[in-house]
Each structure stands twice: as structure tokens, then as C-alpha cells.
User: Fold these one by one.
Assistant:
Number 1:
Amino acid sequence: MSPYLAPLLGGMLLGVAATILMIVNGRTAGISGIVGQLLNGSKWVEDAAFVLGLCLGPLAYAIVFGTFPNVQIASSGALVALAGLLVGFGTRMGSGCTSGHGIVGLARLSPRSIAATAAFLAAGVATATLMGALR
């Protein structure tokens, strides 16, 4: 099996899920916004169903491919936690996350999402380059 098949299918599923959420509920599929609203208690059932669907993704993968995805984390738990906090801070500062801006916002040609996605990519390239240089 091609190593590109699972990411391709995952991307397609994200696009389909974002489209369905927009058509059915008129809402943008931004994960940080949905989780934030879930924690605030507004639209609890819809948001909980969306987050549960995301969490069940590895199970769906195992059903389709016969095994759970192989995930290897090469960093310490503390570094992963720090990265998670920085991502959360960045999504609040950027008024959304990669899924909201990068998938839905770009499809809608939103100038704010184009700028945010360019910033996400630039920061990712800079971080990867810096981390590669530090090894």
C-alpha cells in the first residue's frame, strides 16, 4: 500500500466533514473553536459529536486498514505539552487553527485565513529548520 494513501484519505475526509458541517449547520469546522465552545457549554451536543468523531478516527483507521496507525513521538512529554500550549495560544491569537483557516478559510478565499495559513506555514518551516540545526 502506498504511504500516501492514508494521508490522502484523511485529508479528503476532513474536507468532506468541513463541507457537511458548513452545509448542514452553517458553521466553520475549526477544531479550536468547536472545542472552545464545547468547554463553554454552548451547542454542546453538536460540538461533542464532532469531537467524538475526531477521537474515533484511529478506530475507523484500524477497521479500514486492519491495524492502528503507527505513531512515534520522538520528543519528551514536557516538550509535547509545551508545544500543545503554544499551539493553543497561537490559535487564540490567530482567531482560529489550521483546520478552520487552512481548510475552510482558504476554500472561501478569506484574506484573513490566507494570511493566517501563510503564517502557520512560515512558523512551521522556521521551527523545523531551527530544530534540524540544533540536532
Number 2:
Amino acid sequence: MKIKIKDFTPDSFGLKNKWMLITAAKPDGTVNTMTASWGGFGVMWNKEVAFVVIRPQRYTHEFVESAKSFSLTFFDKSFLKTLGYIGEVSGRDEDKIKKSGLTLAFENEIPYFKEAETSIFVKKLFVQRIQEEAFLDKNLIDRWFPEKDFHDLYIVEITNILGKEK
């Protein structure tokens, strides 16, 4: 079921205890996904956007880098074990999508999962590495980046939203 972007009102703070999957395809058609819990929604440059962060060493990073668009999918609590598995295993080592039991689908050539409660399709607008010198609260570095493995911040335009048929 298509959801109008203007009608989508995510509770960003309510999502803080929910994981999402970030899923992208390379031009050769291979797909990878990763579990994530950091990010947000807002308005930037007069566009409805999401803010997504990915560490460069994550395998999914190279898929997102090579794609113009990707998906953010959110699931109900019954999928926590599956999302945990996807977060623990690298797609470099095994076909975790196949082993997860999730059903890969495509919307305008963007991969997503049919079982998701909400599938948000996004187009990249901006990317920049988070830099140590930009932190005003240096305690965040010690807590979240002890190895100085800073994320890339993506600002992505929301182009389409699908909700699961009830």
C-alpha cells in the first residue's frame, strides 16, 4: 500500500528502539543489507529527507556508494531475531539475505523486503564523513568512536513509501 510522503509522520524517537535494514544494489544486480538503528527524518533543502549513517568498513557501504537510491525498511518486533542475525553476519562471508528467510523484492529497481511494516525508498543527495574535529561534545567520541571509525552521513530524499497490507 502506497503511503503519501506528505502524510508520513514518523515518530523518530519511537523508532529509536526499532532496527531498520539499509538495503542497496550494485549496478551488477548484487544486493546487500545491514541492520541499523541510528538516523532520523526531517526536512532539508525543501525536501522530505532521512539522515542515515554508515561506517565505511561495513560491506553495505560499498553498495550504498555505488547506488543512486536504496531502501530503509522497518519491521515489527517478531523480526528482531532475524534483524539481529543480519546485523551479526557480513554479506562478504555468506548470503545472509537468503539465510534470513526474508523475501527480497524490488520497487523501481530498488531492493527492499516484502515482510517490512514500512519500506522507505530514498535517493542520495549528500554524503560527508563525520570528522573528529566537528564534535563539540568530545565524550561522544570516546563512547561511540573509540577506534576513530567515524560514519559517513548521508542525507537522502524520500521518494516513495510503502506500508504493509493489513
Number 3:
Amino acid sequence: MTMQKKHAEDNLDIVTCLNGVLANEYVLFTKTLNYHWNITGPRFHSLHTFLEGQYRQLLEVMDEVAERVRIFDQRPISTIKGMYSHMEIKDGQDKVPNAETMLQNLMEDHVTIQNQLKEIVMDKNKCATDPGTEDLLVGLLRKHEMMSWMLRSHIVQDGR
């Protein structure tokens, strides 16, 4: 196998990983937007505004991931059907949950993406020869850690 062919195969492997991340980012974005639209309760205004900030950040994240796929001269997943076939995060419930459950669901989804990102970065076969993608994924990991911390801070915990 030529070095160029091996490099192209490595790129396809990382593109597959990036598209998996993109699919999870998409479903989390959609769920966050849905919750933003449907939040109710005494903290409506603050949570409505908070969730708007989160879905806007996720939109930027999706754009970064899709652009990284394009850097490899590949196509990012860009259809609903494609997203569904690659996502690990559950789409949501038919019934709109209460505010606490919304926040808990979103926090858990951020943690799922954090674990996905860590798995890709820690796999030496994926990022060892691609510092650009590794840098992107580590940056996304930090964003998701921050976003999940913010969500966790909104969740009511008895006396904590």
C-alpha cells in the first residue's frame, strides 16, 4: 500500500468519526432548540435565554465540524436521514418534559459527546497524524465540558 493511499484511508476514518460527532451535535442542537421553544415555569425567562445561548454555540460547533470534514475534501452528513443513521444520542420524547428534566437530559447528552470526543482523541490511530483534527476535538471537548457544567449548575440539588 502506498503512503498516499494509507493517508487517504486514515482521512476517511477520521471523517467517519467527525460525521459521528456532527450527528450527535445535530441532535443535541435540535433538542436544545426544542427545549428553548417549550420551556415553562417560574424560571422561564432565564432558562429560555440560557438555552438560546447554548443552541447558538452548538450551531457554531456543527459548522466547525462540517468544515473540518470539507478540509479532507469529503462531504459532511447533511440530511436528517444521514444524521439519524450516525447519532448515538436519543432524539427526545414525544411529551415535553419539565424544566429540570430538560436540563438533566441536555447535561447527559453533553457528557455523551464528551466521552465520544475523548474516545476519538485517545485513539492513537485516529489523531496521531492529524494534529488539526485533534486540536479541534480537544477544543470541542472543552466547550462541552463548560456547557454541561453550566447545565449542571442550573439543576436544583437539595442543599448542594
